[in-house]
């Protein structure tokens, strides 16, 4: 059994998609809660 065949399963794809979407959600919240207020503070 070769190594790439071990990761050729829908569960691995679903897990990777979950991690990516969770990371994008955290990034969006970080920008919304920290970067935008900081930018507004600098502009005023």
What ranges have pLDDT less than 50 throughout 5 or more consecutive residues?
none
Largest sheet: none
Task: Supply the helix-strand structural class.
Answer: mainly alpha
What form results from the Cα inertia axes? Answer: rod-shaped
* Proportion of helical residues: over 70%
Strand proportion, as a percent range, falls in under 5%
Order of helices and strands: HH
Mean pLDDT: 90
Number of E strands:
0
* Helix count from the secondary structure assignment: 2
Q: What is Rg?
A: 18 Å
What does the model show?
There is one protein chain. The protein is an all-alpha fold. Helices cover about 85% and strands about 0% of the residues.
SSE order and pairing:
Blueprint (H helix, E strand, L loop, with lengths): L2 H4 L3 H34 L1
Summary of the model, kept short:
This protein has 44 residues and is mainly alpha-helical. It has helices at residues 3-6, 10-43. The mean pLDDT is 90.
Index terms:
44 residues, mainly alpha, 2 helices, rod-shaped, membrane, transmembrane helix, transmembrane
């Amino acid at each position: 059994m070769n190594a790439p065949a071990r990761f050729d399963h829908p569960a691995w794809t679903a897990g990777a998609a979950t991690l990516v979407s969770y990371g994008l959600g955290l990034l969006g919240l970080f920008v919304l809660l920290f970067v935008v207020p900081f930018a507004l503070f600098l502009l005023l």
